[in-house]
Specification:
The protein has 94 residues and is an alpha+beta fold. The protein has 2 helices and 5 strands. The protein has a 5-stranded mixed β-sheet, covered by helices on one side.
């Protein structure tokens, strides 16, 4: 059988831009990564689902407050990788 043209891998759906921010203030010295500035078309339910995936991937706690995801611990690399895999353009903490 001749090999047909290879199909490119499906590209993730573009879901807009989010910003990562590292915070330690008012948290007892603990670091928290905040994911914020979700596009208006992203629903609260979708933000909750993304938060759950991030918490599982990082093996840590977190919460959703005012359309912002707060993930405990200093793991911006894992958070950035997962968000980019979900189709977000990620700005902020490197």
């Amino acid at each position: 059988l001749p090999a047909g043209p290879e199909l490119p891998a499906p590209r993730p759906v573009k879901r807009g831009r989010v910003v990562l921010r590292k915070e330690t203030a008012h948290r007892g010295g603990k670091t928290v990564i905040v994911v914020h500035e979700f596009a208006p078309q992203i629903t609260g339910k979708q933000i909750d689902e993304i938060a759950t995936k991030l918490k599982k991937a990082c093996g840590c706690g977190g919460t959703v407050k005012d359309r912002q995801i707060e993930i405990q611990g200093d793991q911006p690399g894992k958070i950035r990788a997962l968000l980019e895999a979900e189709g977000f353009q990620v700005a902020g903490v490197k």
